[in-house]
Amino acid sequence: MDQQTLIYLVVGATFALYIGIAIWSRAGSTGEFYAAGRGVHPVANGMATAADWMSAASFISMAGLIAFAGYSASAFLMGWTGGYVLLALLLAPYLRKFGKFTVPEFIGERFYSQTARVVAVIALLVASITYVIGQMTGVGVTFSRFLEVNATVGLLIGAAIVFVYAVLGGMKGITYTQVAQYIVLITAYTIPAVFISLQLTGVAIPPLGLWAEHTDSGMPLLARLNEVITDLGFANYTEHQGSTLNMLLFTLSLMIGTAGLPHVIIRFFTVPRVADARWSAGWALVFIALLYLTAPAVAAMARLNLVDTVQMNPVGTPDQPTFIQYEDRPDWMRTWEVTGLVQWDDKNDDGRIQYYNEDNVEFARQAEERFGWAGNELTVNRDIMVLANPEIASLPNWVVAIVAAGGLAAALSTAAGLLLAISSAVSHDLIKGAINPRISERGELLAARVSMAGAIVLATYLGLNPPGFAAQTVALAFGLAASSIFPAIMMGIFVKRINNAGAVAGMLSGLIFTVVYIFVYKGWFFIPDTNMLEDTAEFWVFGISPLSIGAVGAALNFLVAYVVSNVTEAPPEEIQDLVESIRVPRATQAPGGDD
Amino acid sequence: MSIDRQAGDAYWRANIRLVRTLLVIWALVSYGFGILFRPLLSGIPIGGTDLGFWFAQQGSILTFLILIFFYAIRMNQLDRQFGVDEE
Questions:
Q1: What ipTM does the predicted assembly reach?
Q2: Are A274 and A88 a contacting pair, CB within 8 Å?
Q3: Nearest beta carbon to residue B79 from set A81, A580, A585
Q4: How confident is the model at residue A527 (pLDDT cuts 50, 70, 90)?
């Protein structure tokens, strides 16, 4: 069977599965639409959370990021997992005990302030919409790379699938499709990784293969990788590059941001009990770790594979060519050249693929003098490190098909979670919370479905016409979650004295400070050429990049909230009782008063 | 009510102590061993590099897992001990 047909079959089968689950898990009430009736098993919720969390970026791009940045990219690995410790210890069990449906709802009630709720809604909408655009474009890109359809058609197909299960089933439908999507994506990620690890090290478990001996050279894999890439003028893989302060703050911003992202937090509203919320956070990290422990192995191995593919002999070997002839390049390079993800430009007209670090001035000068190299000739998109893995490892066609389905599963599952966070903020916080509090249960369920449909249409439109801020997910979404949402929730639980004025002042100052710092370097509202300072390390305040500023914004939020609260009136008695009640798992009200 | 309050306060203090200890470990393995103190661990070789690299890329994630499950087990014990568990 040819490759295209096989991919259509596998992707089609997974889509049929998602639709089947949607029909089986229709939502009949707002409780089911917003929180899957709070009947999700903690292990199933852990799996759904893992799929919800691991986006197109985690699946397609993260290994490539690590492959080209080495140790410095560890911030992503630690940041995007360490946030679950904060979530499990500081937020999830208490928010489950609170027992409502949305993040702004908690903030609004705890701080007895409609303003606080609206600020939270704004932060949620900006963060989630920025995030969802990346998922929608990810769906289109995956389609266009693996299947002979253009990105627009691919995106529309993906949006139609999400439409069916998210509008029908809400959180209930999304939860069970996410469980299925997790299984698809982890299978797709693991199979090529196992084979590559076997080929390079003989170790069948990729996370262990990273530390094993490289079969061909007899050296430890990472030592071999360092030798090979530094020989070509690239930076040492395992050494620290750049500012330590910035790496600390970047890791911290990613952790706090992860814990504060509403689409992740609301997943913990779906489990039956407080104890389940604690367990579920652990299970979520187990399922995330399966991919995150493999990613650094894929990264190092793919980088070594790439160099070994084009380099024949060590640089400077007498009478022997260093690099392969363009004509002799392997099939996977031919395949991926079509997509533009691999590009070759024969700058010195010798028909060979010179691949080295031309930004290393000293190395480039010597290379030109001694060998006549006129610059680096091979441009490789980092996504290749995952997408082309099955072909690099010469795996059968069905593995390629599974990787395609895996990329789509990662993007669709995250998109669905984000869409639910967006639509529930609109139907529950804005329509029921602010505009029409007396709306009936049926009316709200209808409003929820209409909001979901609207959110999908908006996301599809923005996915097709991505605005400037779409590429700034890490800066904007994580910055907002870290600087406004996380501190507000945490203080709401842990510091009784924080009142309405303190919370609003804290959130606004954290949010405005963070967004302004990002705009100064990235351009006002991300409009090109409106940035006031150049976005490079020498212009950053204390070397702190706009991506790392969320942690500083969070600190400012805590500080302002604390000071303002202490000079204004303490929260009323019933709010203090509310805090007392969310701190203990046992219900203090009449039975059934929980929901 | 006052006895309830006192038990509740003791439960909350135990919880805070546990969270504080676990967060110290959380920070130590990631910000500490993975980044700041990495030079101190450079003498401990592992797979062609040093222990700090392992903590930054895998060790901290494994520690996070242990922390969350330990917290879940310990909190469920505290819930029962202070009589605040869900029936």
A1: 0.96
A2: no
A3: A585
A4: confident
